[in-house]
Design brief:
Length: 363
């Protein structure tokens, strides 16, 4: 009897052989596997989509199809070489759909990008490459007409909504943890109004929505053998939203001298070299489509996404850990404290960041 994963793979038109399937990557949300052929080659990536988080798998996969074919077209128009390593290729299931449901779980398959590597640890060189890759990604998607892509997680990076969720969690106090985190709740509340600027500007008509990746971590880029960015991956959260998401979330994840769940808060702080390298790379493409207001808001974006993640981890802690995978009982509290410490460092570095962005723009 074949194992579960090989049976799932049978539902896709692979073309190549598969001997075994092994876990791959370390995300918080989906489960990723790579296939191994009898000759030892890994040709396919199999993913179990977390459908309690992505409840509309049809919308999710249709967004991904739109995004990958749009990018492919752009690369072809530009006459780029090696396109199959610069954009993901998803394989249809035997029934023609771009995912397969086994009755319980949802699965998808894409081609493994050959001779690619990904990095968990960042350097200024990689940050600059990542900035270019995410800037170019947003640029290539900037002409997708409004309404074509839907929000795969409604209000995903909407700060007002995330604060409402926290409020709900505080009132419900489901896990009985509120008294332990009251000081953090107060710190968050005192910053709340200032952190909802984008939603306000949008209502006033001075900020528009753009297509964002919404999970701009360095490990969501594949690099070639020489460390040049090849391809942006992990497209589940590509959706319309506010532009600061992709700048802010990279600074939050990449320009932290500590870990996202560091217990030693003295290690957590902002790494200005990474910030500068990412900003420089990002602006190389993004300056052509960002408005002066959006450019001015970039350092704020770093604080915003870090604040938002503090709110999200704290909400999950108060709710009794229902969203993020945890590996110890107080994992979400540790994450909350580390994010908050990073926020304090970003607040302290605000003027330096502004000055740097200005210097890049003035060239
Ligand atoms: P998640 O972060 O949800 O686990 P990803 O799509 O980011 O899922 O995949 C996890 C890791 O698997 C990536 O960081 C990358 O190292 C590797 N990976 C994913 N897709 C590919 C691909 N098509 N080719 C090569 N490596 C891949
Ligand atoms: C989740 O899938 P992963 O681990 O890259 C989350 C992000 C958070 C991140 C916190 C769909 O991302 O929004 O920023 O954890 N993704 C979703 O590290 O909620
Ligand atoms: Mg990923």
């Amino acid at each position: 009897m074949k194992n579960e994963y090989l049976q799932i793979l049978d539902q896709f038109n692979l073309g190549g052989q598969v001997k075994e399937v092994t876990p791959f990557g370390n995300g918080h949300i989906n489960d990723t596997f790579k296939t191994v052929a009898p000759d030892g080659e890994s040709r396919y990536i199999l993913q179990r989509i977390n459908h309690s988080i992505f409840t509309r798998v049809d919308i999710l996969q249709s967004n991904i199809r739109t995004v990958t074919s749009h990018i492919r077209k752009k690369l072809e128009e530009k006459g780029e070489s090696d396109i199959d390593r610069k954009v993901l290729t998803f394989l249809p299931a035997r029934d023609g759909k771009n995912f397969y449901c086994d009755g319980k779980n949802y699965w998808r398959v894409c081609l493994m990008i050959p001779r690619s590597q990904s990095f968990e640890k960042i350097t200024p060189e990689l940050a600059c490459q990542a900035g270019k890759a995410f800037g170019k990604f947003q640029y290539m998607l900037s002409d997708i007409p409004k309404g074509v892509l839907q929000e795969t997680i409604p209000d995903f990076h909407n700060m007002e909504f995330r604060l409402q969720q926290l409020k709900g969690a505080v009132v419900a106090n489901t896990a009985g943890r509120l008294s332990q985190v009251q000081t953090l709740v107060n710190e968050i509340e005192s910053r709340a109004e200032g952190m909802c600027i984008q939603e306000r500007l949008y209502r006033e008509g001075s900020l528009k929505k753009r297509i964002n990746h919404c999970d701009t971590k360095v490990n969501n880029i594949l690099f070639d053998e020489d460390g040049q960015a090849l391809c942006v991956i992990d497209l589940d959260t590509v959706m319309p939203g506010f532009v600061l998401s992709d700048f802010g979330d990279f600074v939050r994840t990449g320009a932290n001298t500590g870990l996202e769940d560091d217990e030693d808060l003295s290690r957590v702080g902002v790494d200005m070299d990474i910030f500068k390298a990412y900003a420089k790379g990002y602006l190389e493409y993004a300056r052509s489509f960002l408005t002066p207001l959006e450019i001015r808001l970039l350092p704020y974006g770093a604080r915003l996404l870090t604040y938002m993640q503090t709110v999200r981890f704290l909400t999950d802690y108060l709710n009794g850990d229902t969203y993020y995978k945890i590996n110890r009982p107080d994992h979400n509290l540790i994450r909350t404290k580390a994010q908050f410490k990073l926020l304090l460092s970003l607040e302290a570095a605000k003027e330096k960041m502004k000055a740097y962005i200005k210097s890049v723009i003035q060239g």
